[in-house]
Hints:
Blueprint: E1 4-8, H1 12-23, E2 27-31, H2 35-53, H3 59-67, E3 69-72, E4 83-86, H4 92-105, E5 111-114, H5 121-126, E6 134-139, E7 148-153, H6 159-171, E8 175-179, H7 187-203, H8 209-219, H9 226-233, H10 235-249, H11 258-265
Parallel strand pairs: 1-2, 1-4, 2-3, 4-5, 5-6, 7-8
Antiparallel strand pairs: 6-7
Helix pairs in contact: 1-2, 7-9, 7-10, 10-11
The protein binds nicotinamide-adenine-dinucleotide (NAD).
Amino acid sequence: MIKHVGVLGAGQMGNGIAHVCAQFGYNVVLFDIAAPQLDKALATIRQNLDHQTLKGATAEMVEETMGRIRPTQDMADLADCDICVEAVTEYQPLKFEIFKKLDAAVKEGAIIASNTSSIPITKIAAVTKRPDKVIGLHFMNPVPVMNLVEVIRGHATSDDTFATTAALVAKLEMEMAVSQDYPGFSVNRVLIPMINEAIFALDEGIAAVEDIDKGMELGTNRLMGPLTLADFIGLDTVLAISNVLYVGFKDPKYRPSPLLEQMVNAGYLGRKSGIGFYSY
Length: 280
Ligand code: NAD
């Protein structure tokens, strides 16, 4: 049974995962290498919880939730967690390094999950000595308002690990969509080529940023257009997922747009850097 949850990476996704787990009563240890990221995450969680008080949460509930989150820069503090959810930067060598260290740091029997958007769970699991305990738990952004978690079973993920993880998703009052372990799983297999194609269309001068977004938003009844969404996800993450699809399937149809690559090289990462297809 899960009582203690570890979250690795205190960025956009990590702070949201820590938020929902603490809100539903789990003790959370939030780990990051960067102290400013931990400070920023705690401030963001408090701000988002305060916002929820407008929808009926009380000040006491906010304090209780905040009290369940313990920030740390020491991975050893994750030792007693029943499940750890990794949400560090989408970079394959980094995921492998983190999973190796995490495997050695957490207690026997603990589940280690990855929030990766696209890196094969089977490959991540293979660097550990507990591949049966490794699973993909792909939360959507922003975590506190999105009701879906994509769950990905690696080649060796056990039925027990799957059942325990599914129970956690239900406890968080979220829906689950199960996907096979192929690059991009199912959500990003469809979403990222659409965003990438929007960037190609922009680069080819087919339409302006606002027109591409307006066309898709109003014309296909979406909450936001693909370029707004790209800024929201982070252009570095969009590029990383595109490359995983491109390399994983060895199919030129997934080739990342050169404009996307150039923007990432320039440090235009979207909302998190203050500039992307729009300015923030
Ligand atoms: P982010 O850039 O906001 O945060 C990444 C965090 O990882 C940072 O706080 C950074 O300090 C930390 N980090 C980097 N190296 C580390 C290390 N060695 N040890 C500990 N922490 C380290 O990224 P994000 O958008 O939160 O994405 C995190 C993961 O979630 C990625 O795998 C991404 O693909 C996935 N994801 C992202 C989205 C999205 O919309 N952004 C949606 C679903 C899944």
